[in-house]
Structure formats: C-alpha cells, structure tokens
Amino acid sequence: MLIKKGDEREIMSVDGKHTNGTKQGNGRSPNVVSAHPVNSGMTVYTVMCDTKSNEITTDPKVIDKAVHEGVVVTLDAISTFATN
Predict the structure, then answer these.
(1) CA torsion sign, 66 to 69 to 75 to 80?
(2) C or N terminus of the chain, fewer CB within 10 Å?
(3) pTM for this predicted structure
C-alpha cells in the first residue's frame, strides 16, 4: 500500500472519456479529461481535448490546473504512454 492508514493527503483521479453520441461542428465526438478528488467523487476540472488529439496530451493541462502540491494523482494506463 502506497498510502498508510491515517494519511490525510488528498488523492486526485484524472481520467479521459470519449463522449459517444455528442458531435462537434466537424462531426467528431470529443474526448474530455476530468479531475476529481477520490474522497468526494465530484468533478473539479474538465478540459475538452483539442481536435485530432487525445487524453495523452491533455492530461498535463488538467494536472497543472486542478492539482496542487502534496496531492497524490492517479492516472490510467493510457496516460503512461511515452515517445522515444
């Protein structure tokens, strides 16, 4: 376990979603990335991904805006993609 019992640090989950059934003017369905504290489950920040983009490039923008020092951030596997 990375966080010990009694640790009061905030945990922020950052995750992207494809919005099926929603169309932009260009006919594409947008992707959005949201941040929400695990303890409340409320979304505190959401960004729509740029056209022809995905959550890999948008995650850092959300983290910069929604996360402050000392917060533990969780991401899913797509966010760990690296280029060489």
Answers:
(1) positive
(2) C
(3) 0.72
SS (H, E, C) 1-56: CCCCCCCCCCEEEEEEEECCCCCCCCCCCCEEEEEEECCCCCCCEEEECCCCCCHH
Q: Which helix (H) or strand (E) holds 74?
A: strand 72-74
Q: Report the chain's mean pLDDT, rounded to a whole number.
A: 80
Q: What angle do CA 66, 72, 1 make, to 5 degrees?
A: 160
Using one digit for the tens of pLDDT, what is the confidence trace for 5-35? Answer: 666 778 888 988 888 888 878 778 888 899 9
d(CA 6, CA 3): 9
State both tokens at 18.
């494809």
